[in-house]
Amino acid sequence: MGAGSRLSPLSRSFCSGRPCRSVAPAVATKVLPFEAIPRSGNNAWLNLYQFWRTNSFQNFHHVMQRNFQNLGPIYRETVGTYDTVNVFLPRDAAQLFQSEGIFPRRMGINAWAAHHRLVLNKEVISPMGTRKFLPFLNTVAEDFVDFMHRQVRKNTRRSLTVDLYHDLFRFTLEASSYALYGARLGLLEENPNPESQKFIHAVETMLQTTLPLLFVPPGVMRWVNHKLWQDHMDAWDAIFSHADKCIQNIYQEFCLGQPRKYSGIMAELLLQEEMPLDSIKANIIEFTAGGVDTTAIREEIKAVEKQGFGELSKVLNSLPLLKGAIKETLSWPLVTVRLASQTLCQVGLYSLGRSPEVFSNPERYDPTRWLGKEDNNFKALSFGFGSRQCIGRRLAESEMMLFLMHVVRNFKIDTVSKADINTIYRFILMPEKPPLLTFRPID
Fold first, then answer.
1. Pairwise CA distance, residues 228 & 61, whole Å
2. What keywords tag this UniProt record (predicted)?
């Protein structure tokens, strides 16, 4: 990108030092060239060395926050092969998204991908497609509640204090796998089978080994840290092997002439025959790879429960506070990656969620902020926007809402410690040390 490119109007908000307010678009000001965007460091490989030396990969979100404070609301950064323009203000994010049109350019994806996106939309984004897989997610959420009840019954105090991170990870993979492949992994059983254990370990390894590969070319990484590279490749091999097995099972059922029923997103895509097999498998595998006071939320759920739980999609639409809680939680991740023209652009959601320019009392956890008349446009961008939104958005949102709905209906949850939770970046933002939570059944 150069002078006069799509990002140029955003340069009106450049300032030195602390972040400042952008000039309103209606005000005639000189458009600065791309090169005028403040930059964090001039040498890409020296920046990469500093990241390695200071272990800044895990604190990437904090590094971005510091850079926004020092350089302003838009800045450039190059770390190894990772070359970006970073923004965090909603109005600048809006201009980025709106400048791309309905078919944004994606690095490394061929032109025919637009057609595949439309085919995928029918099964995973559209309301009709979402309604098909909601029962699958609901079943797993109910099974997770049963799993927690079994754990509680083992304790004579009728309560369970636990670090829920690994159980949540198992629930997520179990629910996603069921909706995507139409097959249960059995991760919520007392003793999951070896194949399921291998799959969950592969996904964990893939996520843990991805971050360094964002910054270092593959050829260099194979030489610098061959074990990390090999672990990453082995993990993907295991994930693809799982997908191949699921495809074979679907085809076997189809060839046996068994009665046609909904068997998950992959089965629908395979039987439609509108996408090549490799594209279906790649997209499905990409899906595989994504203390608060609950009193008010519980009352909201009770009100819906009194009316009777009918169609799941309508039930979820009747829980605005629960939706607000999810938005409030998801307004705090690290970044959402966006591509505009030939330049990689990032919206710093971690910084956006903590800016007093964007939210009043940004450090306070307040789901009700999403229920009022305040302008919240381009503030909830965890899944992107428009044609660039995450294809798995409905799957993830439904999974979270059904999980929370069933857990909050069945348990009172307390935190053991009131201390703030430190976060680290390992391709996804996660707690440095998962908090201990105490679950008590609601009679």
1. 23
2. Heme, Iron, Membrane, Metal-binding, Mitochondrion, Monooxygenase, Oxidoreductase, Steroidogenesis, Transit peptide
